[in-house]
Amino acid sequence: MKVVKFGGSSLATGAQLEKVFDIVAQDPKRRAVVVSAPGKRHTADTKVTDLLIACAERYLSNGEAPELVEEIVGRYADIALEVGLGNEVIGLIRSDLLRLLQSDKQSPERFIDAIKASGEDNNAKLVAAYFRHRGVEAHYVNPKDAGLFVTSEPGNAQVLPESYDNLFQLRQEPGIIVFPGFFGFNEEGEVITFSRSGSDITGSILANGLKAELYENFTDVDAVYTVNPSIVPHPKEIRELTYREMRELSYAGFSVFHDEALIPAFRTNIPVQIKNTNNPSAEGTRVVTKRDNTNGPVVGIASDSGFCSIYISKYLMNREIGFGRRVLQILEDDGLTYEHIPSGIDDMTIILRQNQMDDTIENRVIKRLKDELDADEVTVEHNIALVMVVGEAMRHNVGTTARAAKALSDARVNIEMINQGSSEVSMMFGVKEAQEKQAVRALYQEFFAKVIV
Amino acid sequence: MKVVKFGGSSLATGAQLEKVFDIVAQDPKRRAVVVSAPGKRHTADTKVTDLLIACAERYLSNGEAPELVEEIVGRYADIALEVGLGNEVIGLIRSDLLRLLQSDKQSPERFIDAIKASGEDNNAKLVAAYFRHRGVEAHYVNPKDAGLFVTSEPGNAQVLPESYDNLFQLRQEPGIIVFPGFFGFNEEGEVITFSRSGSDITGSILANGLKAELYENFTDVDAVYTVNPSIVPHPKEIRELTYREMRELSYAGFSVFHDEALIPAFRTNIPVQIKNTNNPSAEGTRVVTKRDNTNGPVVGIASDSGFCSIYISKYLMNREIGFGRRVLQILEDDGLTYEHIPSGIDDMTIILRQNQMDDTIENRVIKRLKDELDADEVTVEHNIALVMVVGEAMRHNVGTTARAAKALSDARVNIEMINQGSSEVSMMFGVKEAQEKQAVRALYQEFFAKVIV
């Protein structure tokens, strides 16, 4: 049995829906389909999820938004019309949405979550109807009936462990099940969404619960690339990579696959296959527990910007028990999370995402670090990028660091920071944002351009 | 005015004392002399300080130790005899020691501190007497009279700020002042010692207080070497280095100069000149605030062993506010200090000195990390060495990291960890202890063997 997940762009139009049907129909093992809400049909388009959020907000401020409701229902109706589906399912979708918009608004967060989630929920009904229209046994499954229970954190739900056993029961269902992505139910029976792009998470949870042999994630790219194509044109594709490698790449800017979504599949060793709905014959990229190393130590290079560093120096700092802990406490008091803490003998640097701090927070943190820790110097540097070189084989390869550092040096990139030694599968370089692309290109050149595939 | 400090081996015999006199007499600016207790006369010898500790411990256990008292007094007497000094000062030394040994033993720590400190105190009296014997105006100064006040931490005294102004008054004294190293007085008038080798600290405090133009530190090596001579035979000498460079080298195994001792001199920009009592015409090594870069980016390479690493992994660790702080709190609860915390996305590693942990502490810490933080994995690796490459010019030199990493890679040294980016003057590599010497030699070869001086 395979779980197949389709993203919003794969379900934006009737033509796309037909591709989806063909893909599922082609392999009888594809028995569980997880769907997102209809996405953008073209660059300037609006995703159904965003229309739903706008609509929910209008209702919350005591307004109504009949034109938004019609636009949303119209998106489903357009798809239905395009594929020759009758109006029955569209009637269901409209009444479901109107019913939800009239529901309790005591908790605005919960209300928005319920409206947002209807995008996926109603799309699953539409997709199931179309599959049946094409003569295939298929039916929509409601996550509540299926027992997908989650914690009560709107926009950040975490699956509860009993869900897996509940979902296993779905194996008994005949035909193809069509399951809405992006949300589950808390113990009070309320809709709670996962973090954004959470349909990937639903697919992974379902693959785990159903004990699937494969989790196929259909999106709109042929594969995961070794580097961001907007930095290096036409980069090599990654055929196979491990969960750990994927997780490290996702962290630093690879947005193909939601990083939380790997966990349920990873826990049960279910491979994840990333494929292109618009080019299903392309090989795609496979995420696995263990892989053979073929093309050198590095599998991918990622980068992300928008970091800053707080530098703290104090003579004989390393003799003060509790110094580091007190620094982190001061950050925590302002709700700040840090990424890395490179340290010298008498100094330490904290790397964190700068969007967490406005001027007020920054000044308060600096003042507290100076006053409470009696630091000799505290300075903040903005606009730092982190460049990550990822590959399982790196730890067996003594020369990788040297090659990376030399490539950066030859490209005249100044290394502000190196963090290597905790993760066995990655090495991280801090550079100034102005040199980020230069750094990524130099590393790509070193580790990929020379490789014969 | 220059402050001149002589270590124990420079004052172990009459012949050494004559060299000391010649050195001081040679430059009329050398007006403040700081002395250690007499050190070893040969490899198998015992330092006077160690005899004093043994003696104090015997008295504490309600015994007496006349033979130890005579051995200690004998050391001073031998020196006096050798240089033709009368017996008067030896009589003073004996009665002073006997008086101290009869003093209050309510606090054993304070008692030991007072006895230990007498080694320097009485040697200062002897040295002053000898200088006068040679026809030079010189006198012993008692740190209490001079106002050298410190905190009440036996064996770890910290100078109190008012001391500097007090010591400035010594400029009024005629002739040469001879000042005992290693201790000061707390506000109750009790002797409190600095940490071991603390005479360097006294010299630095005195240089600061007296607003000296130079602090000369005479020891038994010609210079600070670029690398440990027991790892690389006949290494290059360092002519000039900055305080920061010296501090980083001292940390990782360079024991020429006590690292705490740099602070008072550093705060007032007084250069520190390290010279050899037994070869005073050798240039020595100068520690300064700022230096010109001459021979490449690296000034020295140091290493130290006996570290271990605690590896902690937990999926999505970096989203948990307070995770790192709680890790450090658990270490702090057992009084553990850490050196570095390299981190990945879902893991962090804590590098610490392993002599802080016995099996009981190690197991307790691991258990708490697993239980309280719900970590997926906690493992400890022992026997790690840290190799430090030090040089002010490194931060302006993009290629230094690449050269260092390549040198290690060519020597087949596996880099377990890199810590670079907080300190601007050093770069640290973690390697297995078994590869420590190999690593140091490879780096020396890369940064020094190729340089033409």
From TrEMBL, chains A, B:
It comes from the Bacteria. Keywords: Amino-acid biosynthesis, ATP-binding, Diaminopimelate biosynthesis, Kinase, Lysine biosynthesis, Nucleotide-binding, Transferase. It catalyses: L-aspartate + ATP = 4-phospho-L-aspartate + ADP. GO terms for biological process: diaminopimelate biosynthetic process; homoserine biosynthetic process; lysine biosynthetic process via diaminopimelate; threonine biosynthetic process. CDD domains: AAK_AKiii-YclM-BS, ACT_AKiii-YclM-BS_1, ACT_AKiii-YclM-BS_2. Its EC number is 2.7.2.4. Signal peptide: none annotated. It is an enzyme of class 2 (transferase). One of its GO terms (molecular function) is ATP binding. Pathway: Amino-acid biosynthesis; L-threonine biosynthesis; L-threonine from L-aspartate: step 1/5; Amino-acid biosynthesis; L-methionine biosynthesis via de novo pathway; L-homoserine from L-aspartate: step 1/3; Amino-acid biosynthesis; L-lysine biosynthesis via DAP pathway; (S)-tetrahydrodipicolinate from L-aspartate: step 1/4. InterPro entries: AceGlu_kinase-like_sf (IPR036393), ACT-like_dom_sf (IPR045865), ACT_Aspartokinase (IPR054352), ACT_dom (IPR002912), AKIII_YclM_N (IPR035804), Asp/Glu/Uridylate_kinase (IPR001048), Asp_kin_monofn (IPR005260), Asp_kinase (IPR001341). Substrate binds at residues 49, 120. One of its GO terms (cellular component) is cytosol. It holds the Pfam family ACT_9. Residues 389-453 form the ACT domain. Belongs to the aspartokinase family. NCBIfam families: asp_kinases, PRK09034.1. Catalyzes the phosphorylation of the beta-carboxyl group of aspartic acid with ATP to yield 4-phospho-L-aspartate, which is involved in the branched biosynthetic pathway leading to the biosynthesis of amino acids threonine, isoleucine and methionine. This is Aspartokinase. It comes from Bacillus glycinifermentans.
